[in-house]
From TrEMBL:
It comes from the Bacteria. The lineage of its organism: Bacteria, Pseudomonadati, Bacteroidota, Flavobacteriia, Flavobacteriales. This is LVIVD repeat-containing protein. It comes from Christiangramia forsetii.
Length: 168
């Protein structure tokens, strides 16, 4: 009984390898995404970090505390900087505009930010921001909402995906 059952299972397993009449590569229609990537040129992308006026928190992400300064991520838009000397009344002092930013860390007064596909090291003063170093393409590109990889789209090396637009 075991031997015939094993042969049947092996035949079923190997059946997927057999060619059928319509299995030629030219007859297969590739599945395409329902979205197209929205991109920005790398040169423009790298100039998008700036200091702005304080604003209301709309969609908070991660929170990072460094001494009396609190950084609150505004999802994919940047970071709110709050002065927390008086914890009962923190003051929203400025907003660091960093499109597609999701996280930051601080070490020795250097702020490290996840900026879309890049890792950026910067220094923040009261009225200015200095980019110290940028490591390009450390993080993966943004994938489409329907699961297609960024590599599935025909994009140039200097095109940064900033979002997706529905084709429907």
């Amino acid at each position: 009984m075991k031997k015939p059952l094993l042969i049947i299972i092996a035949c079923l397993f190997l059946q997927s390898c057999w060619l059928h009449r319509n299995d030629e590569r030219g007859d297969i229609n590739p599945v395409t995404s329902s979205f197209e990537p929205l991109t920005i040129d790398r040169e423009i992308f790298e100039s998008t970090i700036a200091i702005g006026a304080p604003r209301e928190i709309e969609e908070a992400g991660k929170i990072y505390v460094n001494g009396d300064i609190v950084f609150i991520n505004e999802l994919n838009k940047g970071f709110h900087v709050l002065d927390n000397h008086d914890p009962k009344n923190p003051a929203n002092i400025l907003f660091i505009e960093i499109p597609l930013a999701t996280d930051l860390a601080i070490r020795n007064n250097t702020i490290y930010v996840h900026h879309a596909v890049d890792l950026v090291a910067m220094r923040l003063d009261a009225n200015s921001i200095e980019i110290l170093h940028r490591v390009r393409n450390v993080f993966p590109r943004l994938n489409s909402p329907d699961g297609f990889l960024a590599e599935d789209f025909d994009l140039g090396e200097n095109q940064i995906i900033i979002g997706y637009q529905s084709l429907n």
